[in-house]
Automatic annotation (TrEMBL):
This is DUF4239 domain-containing protein. The keyword Transmembrane helix applies. Pfam families: Bestrophin-like. It comes from the Bacteria. The chain crosses the membrane at residues 20-42, 54-74, 195-216, 222-241. Keywords: Membrane, Transmembrane, Transmembrane helix.
Length: 267
């Protein structure tokens, strides 16, 4: 299903959430101005109490649907953001545990521990860059193969005692769990807002604001109020889009747990 976080085909670049929010603001506020203009040219009987009463009922229904959809999108985006944030913390804890198990195994794991630290440092650097293309590559097949290479090195260890065999088995188990959690995090971080749903929401909001213009005479106070309302709705949609991509953008999950884990690796 298409979404607004995809790259624009013609421009060959990612459509920013700020641009989408500005488009939403222009549609909503422009509709309000259109409503104010239409009010001045409509015949008076179109603005009678009976007519406005019916319009208010219809707009009330649309407003209810828009509020429900907007609330649903905000709740879904917040849940997605919290899920990725929790996965980052759990990944950091698992990485630290893996490093300590390898340290307990013995000096034979120094190469694997150095490689683990290198991989974690590279991932942090890519995510901190905020570049969507590079972040997307973390969930690609090449990135998976690099992590699988770490697991293969663990399997290639030659334990000399039962204790080392147990530590090797535990290290392999933790590494596989880290790989699975890492892929889950990347999939959750690529959450999308369905374009048809967002377009429908903006259409409803435009109808609502157009009706606001129809029901009020144009003056500075009314126009300023409509401006603030349009700005608020566009900001809400901006927050939804941002929280649906928690690894890049303005609103991102904290990388502090991974940086703390990186500082502890190899010690």
């Amino acid at each position: 299903m298409p979404d607004f976080s995809l790259r624009a085909e013609k421009e060959g670049k990612r459509v920013s959430h700020v641009e989408i929010a500005l488009i939403v603001f222009a549609c909503v506020f422009g509709s309000a101005l259109v409503g104010l203009r239409v009010r001045t040219i409509l015949p008076r009987h179109h603005l009678s109490d009976e007519s406005t009463g019916v319009l208010k009922l219809a707009v009330g229904l649309i407003a209810t649907m828009a509020a429900l959809v907007l609330g649903l999108l905000i709740s879904s985006a917040k849940s997605s953001f919290d899920a990725v944030n929790g996965e980052v913390v759990r990944n950091a804890a698992s990485i630290i545990l893996l490093d300590r198990v390898l340290a307990e195994y013995g000096p034979e794991t120094k190469e694997v521990r150095d490689l683990l630290k290198q991989r974690v440092g590279m991932s942090i650097q890519i995510i901190a860059s905020g570049k969507p293309a590079q972040i997307a590559e973390l969930g690609g097949i090449e990135a998976i193969r690099r992590v699988e290479g770490l697991v293969l090195k663990l399997e290639a260890l030659s334990p000399r005692s039962d204790a080392q065999r147990q530590l090797q088995a535990r290290a392999i188990q933790i590494a596989n769990e880290v790989l699975a959690a890492r892929q889950l995090t990347m999939l959750q971080a690529m959450g999308s807002t369905p374009a048809p749903l967002l377009i429908c929401l903006v259409f409803w909001l435009s109808i609502i604001f157009c009706s606001f213009g129809l029901f009020a005479s144009a003056n500075a106070t009314v126009i300023f109020g409509l401006f603030l309302g349009a700005l608020s709705t566009s900001c809400a949609i901006f927050l939804i889009l941002e929280m649906n991509t928690p690894l890049d953008g303005t609103i991102t999950v904290s990388l502090a747990p991974l940086r703390d884990a990186l500082a502890m690796l190899g010690q």
